[in-house]
Amino acid sequence: MQDKGSFLSPFHGPRRLSAAAPVGRAKLTHPGKAILAGGIAGGIEICITFPTEYVKTQLQLDEKANPPKYRGIADCVKQTVQSHGVKGLYRGLSSLLYGSIPKSAVRFGVFEFLSNKARDESGRLDSTKGLLCGLGAGVMEAVLVVCPMETVKVKFIHDQTSAKPRYKGFYHGVREIVREQGLRGTYQGLTATVLKQGSNQAIRFFVMTSLKNWYKGDDPNKTINPLVTGLFGATAGAASVFGNTPLDVIKTRMQGLEAHKYKNTLDCAVKILRYEGVTAFYKGTIPRLGRVCLDVAIVFIIYEEVVKVLNMVWKTE
257 CB contacts (<8 Å, ≥6 apart)? Predict the structure, then answer.
């Protein structure tokens, strides 16, 4: 028999009491609501966190092969503001904003669609199935939205570091990329992106599902305070950063203006390891950690709250 004071890990199966009275089936979220709520959450989140994404990308592109231009996070921010003003920290925001809304919409829509089919008879989703549903959501968002969006964003940011920036804006940049490299030019680093997004969402939804099951215990419809949701989201975000930062670095290199230096994803990884060492795979970890924890916390809070509002005005079975 379990001692009353012992700790129950949230990463094992949900707690069940054989003698507990039934509390009803957990309410499912309609995929349509998930798409709308996810899009709203993604748009708001990226406007708040973009400067940290900018700094992370700049540090990853600042290769050791050319002597480093930046001495760290603070120096990167300082040089950017001195050269381009505060708005320089938002260079490339438009491309990311245009993609962030459909990215979150696809992610949550696919996750809810898959998880609704994977839940047990009480409507509960176990951690393992949460991981698999998150993996599916991550792969779909990578193929449909993230790869072209991130490729354009990285090219925009990298373009700013050149002596004569070529791209005047989002549509001009996309037009130039497609004109010079074809549609394929917006799908550079697809393999790395699928690996990164798939593992990202698998880790995040695994952690979120585990923590929510642990918190709710035997009442699947127990309400979770937004601050608790944010804390769970930040934890899930941190786990994903430490789990796949090397893939993020490879993806960024494969989508930069010097992507032609690499034959494929594996060649990129081998060259980084050979010429820059293992530590190069973790460049930008600190700014990425701060951004991702805030990012995931904000997205999950807004998503859950928007779903609550939609449940009141949009009745679904």
Answer: 155, 158, 159, 162
Q: CA 22, CA 220: separation in Å to the nearest integer? A: 10
Chain centroid to Cα 304, Å, comes to 17
Task: Give the pLDDT score at 259.
Answer: 79
The chain-wide mean pLDDT, for the chain, equals 84
278, two tokens: 């293992």
Are the C-beta atoms of residues 37 and 310 closer than 8 Å to each other? yes
Q: ∠ at Cα 231 (244, 220), nearest 5°?
A: 100
Whether the pTM exceeds 0.85: the reply is: no
140 Ramachandran zone, left/alpha/beta (phi>0; psi -120 to 50): alpha
Q: For residue 137, what are its two tokens?
A: 């959501």
* Contact by Cβ (8 Å): 33, 315: no
Write out the H or E segment, with its range, that includes residue 87. Answer: none
Q: Which of 264, 242, 240, 239 is nearest to 254 (CA)?
A: 264
Of all helices (H) and strands (E), which one includes residue 126?
none
**Token reading at 235:** 């934890």
